[in-house]
Amino acid sequence: MPDYRFRAVSQGGQVVRGTLAASHEAHLAEQLLAQGYELLACRLPHAKLRWPQRQPEPRALALLFTQLAALAEAGVPLRTALQDCLQSLPPGPLRDGLSAVTQAVQHGATLAEACAHQPRLFPAGLVAVLQAGMAGGSLAQGFARARDHLLWQAEFGALLRRATRYPLFLLFLCTGVISFMMLFVVPQLVEFLRAQDYALPWHSRALIWVAEQFALLWWLLPIALSGLALLVFALRRSSPAFALLTDRLALRLPAFGRLLRQREMALFLHHLALLVGGGVPILPALAEARAALGNRALRQETDHMIAQITAGADLGTVWQNNPAFSGLIARRAQIGLQTGTLAVQLQQASSECDAATIAESKQLIG
Asked: Is the pTM of this model over 0.85?
């Protein structure tokens, strides 16, 4: 939504100026009227070149839900709490998204429905966690669960970034060293060897040929890699079958495939634990937690799992027959079903998957 520059007057006659996001002028006037101001004049700012705005970080969203939880716990109505938080936000995608959510709630939509219409700001997994928290009838509990989920997501992402930063640095360093050797060192060595008129073995001749081709076509390599990346990206968006195939191949990559599976399992179990803890039955909880999975191959496995449980199979038995969940995770599910502590057992299994993911990441460093 665009940011309107406006001039408005309060009921006491005080003229104020400011900027507010609105879909159109009537929407702007409606927002100002709800805050006790009457619109006098407004205009859109002059169009200028801007960099695309980044999506808000999970910690910024977590702060928003912290404020909403505090207001809800104090007994402030939802519409008033949304308006109060909206006024405190600076211009940006977070304020634009919350403005759209506030408008939808004022027109009669539920909070979960309003958030679901802003998928870039409120992903399906976050909406499911929020809805599960509110299942008990407590709005503050729903906001608190969403806040905890976002903080967990931010902490988990930070740990993974720290664990993978060193391997990426080594990859760029090795690429730079190899390029330097091929462009500067090997050509000088070739001139020296040719001047000595030595009979070179086949592997030395092969290295010389590679260095010569690299010196001629080095500029073509980044173009080809960029074109290949764009082609794969376009095919993944246009062809579900190709996207499923690449996701399956990603899970089979050496080292990184196992790390990816561990990360996806941790996300899935974290969502499932929050949903079950919020009172959601196991089948709807599995379907909602499936939305947290980014890998389509794992989503397909989850669909098969849901079909087996729908047909009457036990969750622990299904997981025991699944290599990704067999062992301790399946045993925790069985204990949770027998003792009525499924949410607690799932949360512990999620923590163990977190630890396994971090350990797997650190192994890549070594």
From this structure: no
